[in-house]
């Protein structure tokens, strides 16, 4: 990486030409102080079209050629999950700051190699959790921070689809490539925004069940142009978790790609607090969901409908990443450890489902600092 002055825009690359990669391309193309100069992806048509759209002439079919390109400052990684770790580690070792798509990796062990590479290289590693940057989640967080519901002690958080397996037979349903099903794919967003709304408590134990009933029988697939890798359906299509939090709080998290329920896609959270409650429901990707705060007592009960804007999603994620890249004295603060923490919870959930037992998460040090070495141990349910 070469030195950058305020008059020299950062040079950005994006690996991955799908929906996710295009969110990052849009952001780099529209934000000040950065220039999208290289893209990579295996599909010839989209690579040419996106190259034309964004005026990018450095176009590669393999991520290694993009990383070896030589003068990139930042790269976004928006590829199948099994490639997050090798690309991230390769880019960090080349001195490039990395913004990876969620989930950080297939497992916490793999995620740890990415965090270690961030420490070794001294570069920034961040993971795109764009749901917490939605306007409705930000409005709910502001209400909680203003004390409107008191101390939240329990939540039910969901992301449920009737028939939304990203594509039967694609990398998403291949265990080796994806690491899991809806829990690691969309449940990770729910886990992130729920813990964010609670103020980042440590998760102390996870009890989970997973089911694979529909995808395995060829049901529940979404219409998609995703490339087929020809695998059988190898992951869950529904997961349900009970998370115990430090301080006594709890979260029930339920997520499905496919289940016989009202058609479409729904995510949100219902929160109970000591002074009030909140309910956020987002149906079929509405830009802003229905958010209600419940307060009062006895005759004075009040339900407040909160109007939220759409928020900026990926644009905000990329903007914050670039702000952190501009803040060199604090690069070591942005090492991917929050996303690693999410991966530990998801590992524990899959382990709990496999064992039929609660799995405890034991922090060696409290909090989400870079040196945290949380370990897992099982406990009979
Ligand atoms: N944050 C979000 O809201 C969100 C939404 C969708 C997907 N995602 C995440 O983004 C990632 C990609 O998902 P998607 O739906 O865009 O996938 P996709 O299958 O549509 O696209 C994957 C891209 O990766 C490219 N790729 C694969 N191997 C490569 C290689 N060796 N070198 C270069 N490019 C390679 C493919 O050519 C393709 O362009 C996943 O991690 C997914 O979890 C995040």
From TrEMBL:
Keywords: NAD, Oxidoreductase. The keyword NAD applies. This is Putative dehydrogenase. It comes from the Bacteria. GO terms for molecular function: nucleotide binding; oxidoreductase activity. Residues 10-129 form the Gfo/Idh/MocA-like oxidoreductase N-terminal domain. The lineage of its organism: Bacteria, Bacillati, Actinomycetota, Actinomycetes, Micrococcales. Residues 138-277 form the GFO/IDH/MocA-like oxidoreductase domain.
